[in-house]
Amino acid sequence: MSAQTIAAPTAPDAVATGGTKRPTPAQVFFESWRSGTAWQAVALTVMAFVFALILGAVLLVVSNPTIMGQVKYLFTAPHLFFGQAWHTISVTYAALASGSVGSWAAITETTSRAAPLIIAGLGIALSFRVGLFNIGGQGQAIWGTLLAGYVGFTLHAPIWIHIPLAIIAGVLGGAVWSGIAGFLRARFGANEVITTIMLNYVMVKLVLAILVTKPFQRPGSNNPISAPVDWSATYPRMEGTQLHLGFVLAIIAAVIVWWLLDRTKLGYQLRAVGANPSAAAAAGMNVPFVLTMTMVIAGALCGLAGAGLVLAPDIIGNPQAITPDMVGTLGFDAITVALLGRNKPVGTVLAGLLFGALNAGATAMQASSVNTPLELASVLQALIVMFVAAPMLVQTLAPFIKERRAKAAVAQDADDEPASAPVVANLVGEDAIEVAQEPSTPALATEEASAVPARAARGIPDDPLPPGAAARSGSPDDDTDTTQEGGAR
Amino acid sequence: MTQPLEPTLSATTGTSVMESVGASLEHAESPEAKGHRISMGALLAVIGLLYLWLGSATHGKASFALSQAFDPVKLPTFTLPGAGTVFVGAILCLLAAAALLIKDAPPKMRVWLNVLAGLGVVFGFMAWIAAVGHQTFQLSFQLNGTMAYATPLILGALAGVMGENAGVVNVAIEGQFLTGAFAAALVGTITHSIVAALIAGALTGVVMGVLLALFSIKYLVDQVVLGVVLNLFASGLTGFLYTQFMSTNQQRFNMAPQMSDISIPLLSRIPFFGPIIFKQTILAYLALICILIVWFLLRRTKWGLRVRAVGEHPEAAETVGINVRAIRWQAVLVGGLLAGLGGCYFTVGTTGQFVKDISSGYGFIALAALIMGRWKPGLAALMALLFGFVTNLGNQTGSVPMNPNILAALPYIVTVIAVAGFVGRVVAPKADGVNYVK
Questions:
Q1: Rounded to an integer, what distance in angstroms lies between the CA atom of residue A424 and that of residue A6?
Q2: Which CATH code fits B146-422?
Q3: Number of neighbours of residue A212 by Cβ within 10 angstroms
Q4: What are the backbone dihedrals phi and psi of residue B64, each rounded to the nearest 5 degrees, phi first?
């Protein structure tokens, strides 16, 4: 398993060049809008949603025995089939929309569902950036739940001490558990895929054993369930809604991860190791330390997500208790969120919100008059990620997006963070090759054209990554500043 | 034409050769190897001390039954002193630890002592279960059940071997299991035929393989992303369909026939080994045959050489005229077939009924077996058997006065230790996970 494929090709070798003033985000945005990249990106994403919803609708119809029973009257009485199909689809999707963004209550339900996904997704994204395939979010989050919950119901303190202490306990739990996998990887080269999978199973089993021990089990209960946490350890929420401290923490976590990755020495090392561990080691970086630290931070975030699960108020605003299946499939959902967010903080927040919305809407969907199974949300999530990850497929299916593609390839140079995810890298690589094969393409007429031949030349040989790396050298980028900052410290 | 590629391919095994060379030259031991050796020794010493403590807390006899009630040949039940067996395991561990910690111990002795310590740990544990739980340890049942549990793991790991040797990472084994299990239950119920169920399961695995190949080979989506998403897709799709029409009409859609054990004439009458190996379900035999087939395909055919070439160095393969994408497609589809077949185990191999997320993470264990097996069919299957063994061991601990969940967590802890200590750095096929852009 080559975990390096997930690594962000942020290419420290491109650092040496550049050095001119970095364009402001506003400039970058304007530039990408003018050249059509933004339009294309928006169109691709929208079409990915549309295709996913269409496939979901098809699935709804073909799996429904009642509707399929009408197929035999398709020619004699078509309104029976189409009427029922339309009814099922429209009611389902209307419920999906109203349950996720239809009202203030629905929107806050979305944010409350999104919060753990965003936080854990950030942790997973961080480890992916270093080339570590961390599947252990589940076990790490279980530790977060256990320890935060324990502090939550044993300690009795004012809210401004209690909540931070509970959060810290959860964060430490996740960090230590994940740190084990990181240490084993750094020290013995133990493949983190195996160790994190196994550590998940250990926790899935152990949590059942831990929750029936005396300190944890609810007095008088025979089931693996703890006492409810104190009110003073429960995240405060806006009255009557589900908007609580958890979502605020998610946003803060995203800002911290962005700052860590883009503005600190450790973040620079982290990206360097992700791009090329050998080069990073040759440059004097302590690769085992970076690997361990990455897993520790990733685990801390997953622990925070787990803490949020037990410390958040429930649907009617009451404190919760620790239950064994509280974490559910958070670890795997977080992986999908991180991947859809292209392992970047902002992307992860958006992807987390999307998944949170679909999960919130799914509950409404199930409660609607057509009783659509909850699992349709998972199918939609998977389809959306697949379409978003395969822009070429979307372009094939929706040819009208293609018009500005050649131009967009060039405009990628001006993008703030080109090729930070393999998905993007592949797209850029493909574009570069296309441009190289058709030298007379109109794209060369634009002012950015000078960057293209060099990129294409470097992009052709083998690897989809170099074009992105080369693209960075053509434009002033973040890494330059980070090096200087890092050196100054 | 393809001959010059062979040295490149053998380069993967080069590291293990290097290790043994390094071990024979004691004075040239690298600091890293030394640190590894000492940590391993310390770990074994800790296990040994733990077993000493475990032995001192063990009383009574440990009985092992060599045959089950309905076996054609009855074998005696033999009895060992419980504490003594645990102590033997402890001493073997301590000896192995000493061999690792002493600088100039001969490497061969270290290997043998490690193997003995491993056996000692396993036997000590079984003796402890038998003595503490006051029950007879069913050795024959244990080994027979091992094969049953390992069946899907072997097929899943072989699916991974096929894909990853061609350079396509398959994280979606779990998803292929799920769709295979679902299709087998559905088709098995409708047709009342095991064969039809198996074919349906295998074909749905292939369909998942088509998705994997289409998106990774044609649309160049990152393979790990894709695998994770396909798992979500399979879990969502099977769960959706199950709730939509299967759960409400179990009689019509979810009552597949169950596979029964097939005894092979004569061979199944061999004392002890007969009932273990030659009294299995058709799927278990298929899994065993598939190990040989996959090994033969990869190691003894032109096509297999091409698969490995494509997985190691696709550019080089392309220059000698191999169609990289076509070979990858073929390998992924064969892998899908195997994983889909493995998925059938969860429905027609057990209760005949599908429930949501029935494969409960076995696909990831298969992935772990594949990595621990260093992407080799035989070794990966062996690791799958090991997981089957420890999983079934959990079924024998019912009467031990201890929380069963702690015991259930033990196999996974052992795996982590084993991966860190004995497997160490593994080298994947070089182009594994790297999409090929022509």
A1: 12
A2: 1.10.3470
A3: 16
A4: -120, 125
> What are the tokens at B9?
């391919």
User: Which residues of chain B form CATH 1.10.3470?
Assistant: 146-422
Determine contact, residues B385/B156, Cβ cutoff 8 Å.
no
Q: B135 to each of A330, B62, B229, B401, how far by Cα in Å?
A: 40, 8, 46, 12
For the complex shown, is ipTM > 0.90? no
The residue that leads in pLDDT, A484 or B297, is B297
Do B233 and A383 make contact, defined as CB atoms within 8 angstroms?
yes
Please list every residue in chain A whose beta carbon sits closer than 8 Å to the beta carbon of residue B169: 1-2, 5
B319: tokens are 């220059």
pLDDT at A33: 65
Report pLDDT digits (tens) over A237-268. Answer: 888 788 999 999 999 999 999 999 999 999 99
Residue with token string 């929420």: A237
> So what's the pLDDT on residue A448?
36
CA nearest neighbour of B410 among B128, B155, B21: B128
Nearest-angstrom CA–CA distance, A470 and A290: 25
Mutation target to probe the A interface, by most A beta carbons within 10 A, among B214, B222, B324 is B222
The DSSP string of B246-304 is: ITT-HHHHS-PPPP--EEPTTGGGSTTHHHHHSEE-HHHHHHHHHHHHHHHHHHHSHHH
Task: Write the CA distances from B59 to A218, B83, B128, B134, integer angstroms.
Answer: 34, 6, 9, 10
Closest CA to B367 of B220, B175, B204: B175
Kindly report, residue by residue over A41-80, the tens digit of the pLDDT.
Answer: 888 889 999 999 999 999 999 988 888 888 888 888 888 8
Handedness of CA A91, A96, A102, A103 (dihedral sign): positive
For the record, the structure tokens of B152 come out as 């899907």
CA B424 to chain A, closest CA, distance in angstroms equals: 5
Asked if the Cβ–Cβ distance from B233 to A379 is below 8 Å, we say yes
Could you read off the pLDDT of B117-131 as tens digits, one per residue? 888 888 888 888 888
Per-residue pLDDT, A433: 35
Size of interface A-B (CB pairs under 8 A): 206
Task: Give the amino acid at B388.
Answer: G
- A2 DSSP assignment: -
**Strand partners of residue B64:** B78, B137
B424 neighbors A188 (Cβ within 8 angstroms): yes
pTM for this structure? Answer: 0.81
Tens-digit pLDDT profile for residues B133-163: 888 888 888 888 899 999 999 999 999 999 9
The number of beta carbons lying within 10 Å of the beta carbon of residue A338 is: 34
Label residue B424 left, alpha or beta by phi (over 0 means left) and psi (-120 to 50 means alpha). left
Kindly state the helix (H) or strand (E) to which residue B81 belongs, with its residue range: strand B77-81
Q: B190 exposed, middle or buried (CB, 10 Å; 0-12, 13-18, 19+)?
A: middle
Nearest of B154, B195, B194 to residue B177 by alpha carbon: B154
Nearest CA in chain A to B37: A188
In the structure, how many helices (H) and strands (E) does chain B have?
A: 18, 5
For B127, residues 6+ apart whose C-beta sits below 8 A from its C-beta are B58, B62, B80, B82, B85, B86, B89, B137
DSSP A263-299: HSHHHHHHHHHHH-HHHHHHTT--HHHHHHHHHHHHH
Q: What percent of chain A has a predicted confidence (pLDDT) above 70? A: 75
- Cβ pair A360, A110 in contact under 8 A: yes
- Shortest Cα distance, chain A CAs vs residue B214, angstroms: 10
Q: Name chain A contacts of B233, Cβ cutoff 8 Å.
A: 378-379, 382-383, 386
In what order do the strands lie in the sheet containing B77-81? B77-81, B61-65, B136-138
